[in-house]
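Quick illustration, no need to memorize.
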Amino acid sequence: LFYLSKLFLCLSTALLSIFVSIQIALMTVTLFPIRLFLAAFMMLLAWPFAFIASVGRNEMVVEPQSLWRKYVC
């Protein structure tokens, strides 16, 4: 009886390992492109805000930053 329980435990561990491997493979195929798309979307969404924050800045004129830029940076 002890050997049967040990065999069952070994088989269930191997079966669980197979299921975990399949789950990792499926999540890699499905979740990675979604995360990649969301990261690219966030970068594209942040670009207009960075552009608006830098509008009107002249690189030749050295001037102190405005108050809100001091708090943000």
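The chain has two helices and no strands.
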